[in-house]
UniProtKB/TrEMBL annotation:
Residue ranges annotated for the Protein kinase domain, each copy included: 25-318
Residues of the full protein shown: 715 to 1032 of 1151
Annotated residues for binding of ATP: K59
Lineage top rank: taxon: Eukaryota
UniProt name for this protein: Proto-oncogene tyrosine-protein kinase receptor Ret
Native source organism of the sequence: Aquatica leii
Record's subcellular location: Membrane
Length: 318
């Protein structure tokens, strides 16, 4: 009998403070799938101090996930227990009973990922499909009408500011995210940005903090040169990724370095190549992006600098 990774949970992972009874959770549909992970939409009864039913998101693993993915999910669980910030996705509970699948129960972000939100705002043909999928089975009382709205420059700045605030908090508590990208930011009610996907996050005081995994997919186009060459991950390498995220914001979810193969990226960056200023991007905003892409990590701004910068830019925006 071959136990899948999903069932190989050590008893010590079960934390009574967070454990949520499975019979109070009813899975409704799949929101998205990765190679080894899956995000489900569910209804939870009396979760996180709320009475009655609430719509939640459940992170779990697919059957073919291995030890590595299980370790990432459990490490995400441990980290989410420790964090509390309006711009970081909130953990509501978990189900880690040995013998069953691991479920992380997190708050449901009604607008989905920032990347898809940005792309939907371009009125792409595929919007109809995405929107219908997300809304299937959701009753009006707990879901806003599907709005494919245009994004204003002010909203872009507000998203950048909110993400800088969440990242500044992570820096304060000595955490390095390592996978900051628009696909890993969720948009909740009131268009509040919620940084998510903490599977790769590490405490910078941990020994292996500076070394990337030997296997698995690496987000090369979001990675700082020092992460690519020496596997160094710090808050400053998160700032580099944040610069790419701003580029994603301004281009409404385009894929970075179009036409450039990942194999040639490191050499290009080392020799000074950077993405050019996108159309509709102000010189001031491009300057911020470029400062995040300084070869020398020390020359990059901190998230606290970035938060102040965007707060000022928001004030100037009419
Ligand atoms: O843009 P989306 O519909 O929003 O596609 C992705 C998909 O799952 C895979 O990550 C959605 N998703 C992930 N976490 C949540 C969450 N907490 N609330 C709502 N949707 C989520 C995401």
């Amino acid at each position: 009998f071959d136990l899948t990774a999903m069932t190989r949970v050590n008893r010590c992972e079960t934390d009574p403070k967070w454990e949520f009874p499975r019979n109070q959770l009813s899975i409704e549909q799949t929101l998205g799938e990765g190679e080894f992970g899956r995000v489900l939409r569910a209804r939870a009864f009396n979760i996180g101090g709320q009475s009655g039913y609430a719509t939640v998101a459940v992170k779990t693993l697919k059957n073919d996930a291995g030890e590595r993915e299980l370790a990432d999910l459990l490490s995400e669980y441990q980290l989410l227990k420790e964090v509390s910030h309006p711009n970081i996705i909130k953990l509501l509970g978990a189900s880690t009973v040995p013998g069953g699948p691991v479920y992380l129960i997190i708050e449901f972000a009604e607008h989905g990922s920032l990347r898809n939100y940005l792309r939907r705002s371009r009125h792409l043909q595929t919007d109809i499909h995405i929107t219908t999928n997300r809304l299937h089975n959701i009753t009006p009382e707990h879901y806003d009408e599907p709005k494919i709205c245009e994004i204003t420059p002010k909203e872009i700045l507000s998203f950048a500011w909110q993400i800088a605030n969440g990242m500044s908090y992570l820096s304060d508590i000595k955490l390095v995210h390592r996978d900051l990208a628009a696909r890993n930011v969720l948009i909740g009610t009131g268009k509040i940005c919620k940084i998510s996907d903490f599977g790769l996050t590490r405490d910078i005081y941990e020994d292996d903090a500076y070394f990337k995994r030997s296997k698995g997919r690496v987000p090369v186009k979001w990675m700082a040169p020092e992460s690519l060459s020496d596997h160094i991950y710090t808050n400053k390498s998160d700032v580099w990724s944040y610069g790419i995220l701003i580029w994603e914001l301004v281009t409404l979810g385009a894929s970075p370095y179009p036409g450039i193969v990942v194999q040639s990226l490191f050499h290009l960056l080392k020799t000074g190549y950077r993405m050019e200023r996108p159309e509709n991007c102000s010189v001031a905003l491009y300057k911020v992006m470029r400062s995040c892409w300084s070869l020398d990590p020390e020359k990059r701004p901190t998230f606290s600098d970035l938060s102040i910068k965007f707060e000022k830019m928001l004030e100037d925006e009419v």
